[in-house]
Amino acid sequence: MSLLEKTIQSIKGQDNESRAAALKRLESLTMPHWALGQLMDLAMDLAGITGSPRPSFPSKSVVVMAADHGVAARGTSLYPIEVTRQMVYNFVRGGAGINAIASVCGARVIVADMGIAGERLNIQKENFIDARIAPGTRDFLVQPAMTREQAIESIESGIRIFRSIEADTDLLGTGDMGIGNTTSSSAIASVLTGLPPADVTGRGTGIDDKQLKLKTELIEMDIRARQPDRNDGLSVLSSIGGFEIGGIAGLVLGAASAGKPVLIDGFISTAGALIAHSLSPAVSQYLIAAHMSVETGHKAMLDLLELSPLLDLDFRLGEGTGAAMAMPLVDAAARLLTDVATFEEASVSRNE
Amino acid sequence: MSLLEKTIQSIKGQDNESRAAALKRLESLTMPHWALGQLMDLAMDLAGITGSPRPSFPSKSVVVMAADHGVAARGTSLYPIEVTRQMVYNFVRGGAGINAIASVCGARVIVADMGIAGERLNIQKENFIDARIAPGTRDFLVQPAMTREQAIESIESGIRIFRSIEADTDLLGTGDMGIGNTTSSSAIASVLTGLPPADVTGRGTGIDDKQLKLKTELIEMDIRARQPDRNDGLSVLSSIGGFEIGGIAGLVLGAASAGKPVLIDGFISTAGALIAHSLSPAVSQYLIAAHMSVETGHKAMLDLLELSPLLDLDFRLGEGTGAAMAMPLVDAAARLLTDVATFEEASVSRNE
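YS: structure for the whole thing
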């Protein structure tokens, strides 16, 4: 059995006993019933995911999956393709948005080259992982973005990367970097939600109306040309995906199989989560939607996963910034289960 | 000149030079333009409030103002009046929701008795302040909640409490505890927004439809009976307010006069902020709305202050829980100004 098959087989779904124990505790805390709303829903999920009614998350990691896209040559991004590579150097030096937010939120940032265009990156740092599959995908209007073998390889690399950090990761956040990757993610969103490309295609780095129209039309042509099988996540990933998207799918599967919660970031990460979900529907029980992206279509993708985002701050950066920003909420939710007294413990009068 | 007058006079509003410097920096960071949305708006406010283009907030405090209300005897809360006192003991022992969240978010919790019913509390702890004005307000259907002198005293106590913690407080969060205080806050919201009580009266601790109808009708009768002058914050506070609400108004005025940002929590804290705003409209420039409360009418109050909330998590607890939960967002916003590299610094290609 392959690593991918074994991983999928070991994803069990949430533990109902721990969820029930958490619910009982939450309902007896010294506050009006469910007065901390979504944080209490989250606390129940954390208990279910970890199989513990008293979970805690001292070690946090954000993995930024980086890769390039053949479709970037179309000019539907405002930035040149070399920005993917340049930003990876920025990440490992600590100068990007994700570094600032992760530092506030107590997470380390790990960057993986899943397939950046050009030469292999010359980075010898602990927080950098070279897992490149090829120097970028192919333009999927012309041919599939990658082979089926490469699709499996990208997902299995993601699983292996998760396993390599598992011992130091109680809570995982996903992140992405890749010029052109909103095009690939919109195409995935369209195929897997069944919505037309116009409903799930947004402005990415900030393109104007004319560029958005072109981007949408190209995605329609891409899907017609590739005809991915929406019931087969590997077909979708290989036809119109990206190496970093496969890597994110692997992270999600790896964490779910280990019973650890995954904060999925925005549009690209959710595309990766959708690929994972199409391979193993139970993964959605391990996912926490960090935030609602500005990018059109994110809501439809989260709806398919039956997830409600924690934050809505008009983020559209990726890199895992939303995932990192939501980590204190996960800590706070967990602390409700361990730190807050019940009416009985605190001798507070109950609702009469 | 009184402490209140002096404090009001020293509130200047945001520093435009620091805002402009922050804007310039934010627009050159290695990310698509304004890709971290509300966090970047917040970063500009933090620069304007502190008068520094590189602000930082290592020391954080949440002050929970506690008091009782004559209106609580009406039975419009699900909890008996002694819960205010019992919860204060819970706060100082560290067993409440605010303690769990503040601990995650790096804030200390300070509790002030502004006027709890019954005997003086017997608490000898560093994080407890005895600033009681009277053992609860009077039922404002029958007579004003407090005298005008007591209204001034409650606000000046809030200013003094802020000053006593100012040296260790770079970022302040406000909080409240007081059975019956949504009734007072709804009355304040109705008078100051000009909306009918039905539009700004919610379920508080979780009352049913019948109790909500009664609560709303009583608030209509209260306002008719008291006729507070909406152009005079002291008239509103003394007629239909509470001692903790005056205390929160004082905290807000004190922090604004010191050029420090204030995260206002939910419904009750915003009522306090509205009283401060009616005395000194410039205070709103120092306020950050932490979250959108479940309580009906909170949005109308934030609109009056021209504030957008950072979080929307279905909280309706008070205690400063929303304010504490938003503190990592303030830290992250500030770190955008200090930790993230510009395109030039990181040698990343710009938008062409």
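YS: worth flagging: Residues 19 and 332 of chain A are 17 Å apart (CA to CA).
IM: good catch. Also The longest strand of chain A covers residues 107-115.
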